[in-house]
Specification:
The chain is of the alpha/beta class. The chain has four helices and six strands, in the order βββαββαβαα. The protein is elongated, with a radius of gyration of 19 Å.
Length: 115
């Protein structure tokens, strides 16, 4: 399975040259399958799901991606730099919802605020 997205551009003599798309150049979703950046994940199930859904996994920082899959938290500054078509599996403040003790604390605060 190819780990990076490549497109082919015609050269002067009709030859095919591989050109990597870099971040910020944009990518037409109709020309290639969705690209998942999995550089910061350790789970093999992501590879299985990508194969099943015909997505492409990438492990390169500078490649243009559609989905950014990460095992840890994402900095809010990273989210501000994302393009409108890009998605991630985390959002700021997710920690307070994902932890049982913080979720209970927040639900109790909501219950007090909205009787």
């Amino acid at each position: 399975m190819e780990s990076s997205l490549s497109i082919h551009a015609s050269g002067g003599g009709g030859d095919q040259t591989a050109v990597k798309k870099k971040r910020g150049q944009g990518r037409d979703p109709k020309e290639a399958p969705l690209l998942i950046n999995a550089i910061y994940t350790q789970y093999e199930v992501l590879k299985d799901v990508a194969d099943e859904m015909n997505f492409v996994l990438s492990y390169e920082e500078d490649e243009d991606w559609d989905i950014y899959w990460i095992d840890g938290p994402i900095a809010p500054t990273f989210l501000l730099k994302m393009q409108s078509y890009q998605r991630t599996n985390h959002f700021p403040g997710m920690y307070s919802l994902a932890r049982k003790n913080l979720l209970a604390k927040n639900l109790m605060a909501i219950k007090k605020a909205c009787p």
